[in-house]
Amino acid sequence: MRADFQTFLINLDRSEDRLRTMRQRLERAGLPWQRVAAVDGKTLDLRNLREVDERGFRRRHGKRLNPAEVGCYLSHIKALKAFLDGPWTWALILEDDADFPDDFGTLIEQLLERSDQWDVLKLSSFHGGSPVPVAELPGSRRLAVPLARLMNANCILFNRHAARVLLKRLLPMTLPYDHALEQAFVFGLRLRTITPIPCPAETGLPSTIGDRAQLRPFKLRWYKRLPAMGFRMSMETRRVVFGLKQVLSAGKSARPD
C-alpha cells in the first residue's frame, strides 16, 4: 500500500475483543493502520461540552442526546485530526465493527488512482442511497453519486481537503455522526459511494451505541420532532438537486471533445 495512505481504527479501550478481530481483518486486507482510542460517552459530562449543541441536536434530530452517540461523534473528529496531524494524503477511517471483501486492498488502490473524482467516499451503508453511477471501476463496480441517504460510518475514505472542511463544519455536534456526514454536499464536498456497496454495515458485532429498543427512550414526542422532520425534508431535496448536478457534471467531463 502506498506511503501517502493510512488507516485509522476507532476503538474503545474496553473493547479489546473488537481490537483483536479488527487486527485480523486489517492484516488480511494488507492495510497499514493505527489505532485511535475512542471517546467513551459514559465518561462525558454532556452539560458542559462546547463541542455539542444540545438544543440544535433536538431541533435537527428530534431526540435527546445519547452519550454513546456523542462519544462516537467525537471519536470520528479525533480520527480526522489524527489524519491531518500526519503526512498522509488519504485516510480510511474505520469503526471497530468494519469488515471487507477479499479484494479490499486492491479496491483501495483503484479508488486512490481515481481520487480526482471524490472527496468523501462511503464504502458501507445501511440504506441503498439511490446511487447514480458516474465512473466504471474494475470488477463490475462503479463509482456513484448518492441521491438519497446511505447512513453508517464504519468504513469511509477521505482526502485532506475533506478532513479540513469537515473539522470546521461538523462542530458543534447537532446530529449523530453518520447523519452529519451525509451533509458533505452542503459543505461543497464530493460525496460518493460504490455500487454494489463493498463493505457490510452489519458484521455480526453488536452496536456499542445501542439497538432500536435501547435508543427509543431518547426520542422526543411526535410534535417536538416536527422541526426535525422539516429539516430532513429540506436536506433530502437539496441532496437530490446537488446530486443531479454532480451527475451531469461528471457526464460532461467524461464526453470526448
From TrEMBL:
Pathway: Bacterial outer membrane biogenesis; lipooligosaccharide biosynthesis; Glycan metabolism; lacto-N-neotetraose biosynthesis. Keywords: Lipopolysaccharide biosynthesis. Residues 6-123 form the Glycosyl transferase family domain. Pfam families: Glyco_transf_25 (PF01755). Transmembrane segments: none annotated. InterPro entries: Glyco_trans_25 (IPR002654). This is Glycosyltransferase family 25 protein. It comes from the Bacteria.
